[in-house]
Amino acid sequence: MNRETLKSIILVILIAFSLVLTVALWSYQPASETLEEGGSTADNKLEGLGTEEDLSDLLIPELVVYHENDGHFTFPEPNGKTSFNDQFKKWSLSNFDTTPGEIDLNTIEKGVEVIFPTSLPLKVIKDLFTVNNNVILDNFNKNFERVFLVQNEERSSSTYELWFVQAGSQGDEVTLKASVNASAGDRALKAFEDRNDLTEIVRLADEMPAVDAANIGANHIYLPKDDISVPQVVLQTTAVPVTPLQNDLFPSPSSTIFYEAGEGIKRTKTNDRRLDQKKDDRLMEFLFLTTKSINESGMTEYDLLTKSVQDINSHLGWTNEFRIESLSTGLDELKYRMYFNEFPVMEDEATEGFAQISMTYEDSDIQSYDRPLIKFVRTPYETDSMAELQSVDDVINQIQNSNTYDFNSIKNIGIRYTLEEQTNNLAYNLIPEWYIETESESWAPLFKEEPMPNGDAAP
User: Fold this and answer.
1) In the predicted model, what is the mean pLDDT of residues 386-401?
2) What parts of the sequence cross the membrane (predicted)?
3) Are 235 and 376 in contact (CB under 8 A)?
């Protein structure tokens, strides 16, 4: 075979190979598969992993405080508050006063203060209590973040009132008053009769006499008077399958493709929706890609709450105990926080997103939906060790000696768990720590050092 013939054969082979590559490129879809390959479109619920919840189950008070003269008391976590909350939700309300006027809360000699983790629309009252007249609440657009149970001095000693209170720039505002029957009020106060069953707490404003705390959050921040120990817990995880979520969030599975998007991201996508699995399939981020032409959705805070609960219930998405943390109609967004042992669970940099569900809405439709793809469970072979936290005096000194905090910007201080991944990636630690919330920064650890287990407090 001469050289020219060999060149011709090689040229023909190269041309044929080039045509094959061209056809392959024209017909290429990146590692795609339809959702039906991951499961039936009817498989849209996290059966055995998640639950449905009522709105009232997600609006749990973060603190219940009993006031008597200058003393303040609460239940030790978690059983006392849970029992009181069950009783709380059975109260029947009547005689609504939508223009209660100004009330000086500092004059209350005896009463119960119920504090919620965020400001809530008054319309949720019909989900929390038995209400005789829903029409009043449907047409009343105000909020509350705390509720006071007090005796009605103007009528009789056996009559009680609920005051729904919202903090404002000029101080506290009572946005609504309602009557509670005598038997409910008597039972509520009776729960606080035995001091041996209660924990004494102090008001932050009273512990900082040098600070003008007339209209700041310190008036409503309570800290345990005595030293406190909290269990340090080890958790394992169970994987939450993404297929039911895909089938629930994508209306046309046959037009959906799945591919690797780089940096460990597994992507499910259509023309207008995208779902990413991140952090080794432990975190999901869903986004509706097409922004509506009109940004104002017209959704109220109550609409956001009820719609989000309905949407998560549709796939049994409550895989751990979650409660409302924040709610904003300005951004049409809300966030639910995971709880354990009645304490909120926060994340560090490595576990960011593992203990919260966040959603945004546009035109009553989900615009974004971020959630964990893992369910946390107790390790059967681990025993909890006790971590002794810094004392109230340590907390006060940390605030006063720090250049970080403006007293007028402090919104809250409390004990929370930090979710920390173990180095072997097989389990997670729940580390109890003091956290602080300010006007300029969301919840962050107050002390940089972690509390030490087995009774050794961090310096």
Assistant:
1) 90
2) 9-28
3) yes
